UniProtKB/TrEMBL annotation:
Residues 15-327 form the Enoyl reductase (ER) domain. The keyword Oxidoreductase applies. Transmembrane segments: none annotated. This is NADP-dependent oxidoreductase. It comes from Saccharibacillus alkalitolerans. The keyword Oxidoreductase applies. InterPro entries: ADH-like_C (IPR013149), ADH_N_2 (IPR041694), ER (IPR020843), GroES-like_sf (IPR011032), MDR_fam (IPR045010), NAD(P)-bd_dom_sf (IPR036291). Keywords: Oxidoreductase.
Amino acid sequence: KKRFVLASRPDGMPTRENFELKTEELEAPKDGEITVETLYLSVDPYMRGRMNDTKSYAKPYEIGGTFGGGAVGRVIESRHASHKEGDIVQGGWGWQTHAAVNGDHVVPVDPDLAPVQSSIGALGMPGLTAYFGLLDIGQPKEGETVVVSGAGGAVGMIVGQIAKIKGARVVGISGSEEKNRYLSEELGFDAVVNYKTESLGEALERACPDGVDVYFDNVGGEVSDAVFLLLNSNARIPLCGQISQYNVSDPEPGPRFLPLLLTRTALVKGFLVGQYQQRFGEAIPEMAGWMREGKLKYRENIIEGFDNAPEAFFGLFTGENLGKQLVKV
Ligand code: NDP
């Protein structure tokens, strides 16, 4: 089997040097364990935070330890009563081609519901992040304007479509023409802004003639500064991610617009998808239903080959991915 371990901690943008690829004997499952063969690995922005040795909501990765993360795989051997050979499961065994894992720590995946890899994408962690952040905190109402940053990514494209389902006017911000074309032509976003090529303030004003009622923030930094200027009274801001700051060694000072939040009586609320675990069971069937009705679509950006997992991960910070970034093992 092969696995990636953390070789060193990055300063700024991570590089290949921070990873070591190990080839080892596949361990046999112990009582209560199953052996899985990985089909797809997830690469996610939060992993960058876990590469640092700083206190956060998730424990830092250990030097020499397996690079952790979500994966979906097939059971090839089982010593656990609830799983049998051939079953598809999803779990957190990280960047490994095979692993012996505790059978209580994986979740069965129904291959008839949707392609199995969506259990770590649109119907998994990123999709649930979009669902709960938007509906629980953002609470978009018919006719309101919802702006989402990181709109062409795994979380962002689901946010925009759920906001459309709720009758809102949806504006997406991304850094690529290809992403913006997909958002407006395929997903029906009402307006799109390219933060790399357009003058952000002007483009946003054009895109949001009635101001902004909900801002789903995936990126932070200058993009968010520009959106904050357009907030309406009683705006809601689900604070989901701040990817523009993840590779910055000296974080930019901020937030710069606290007086604005006060006078617009805005709500800013950070959240972690894990807080909603008890309610995943209500969200997944509802989202799967929207998919069957054609109201919720998703894209995956699939890189082939286990050995390319670090490059797939780096691409998240340069915007290579349209939709959920996955590695097909
Ligand atoms: P994405 O699929 O959106 O991939 C990341 C995207 O971020 C890139 O494609 C890129 O798109 C954009 N990006 C990268 N650097 C910058 C930058 N400096 N400024 C602006 N945009 C940038 O990732 P996810 O959908 O998985 O995650 C989106 C956000 O949600 C992240 O911040 C993540 O940490 C957060 N998150 C939070 C969770 C929670 O529980 N709170 C759970 C899951 C995710 P572009 O081409 O537009 O630049």
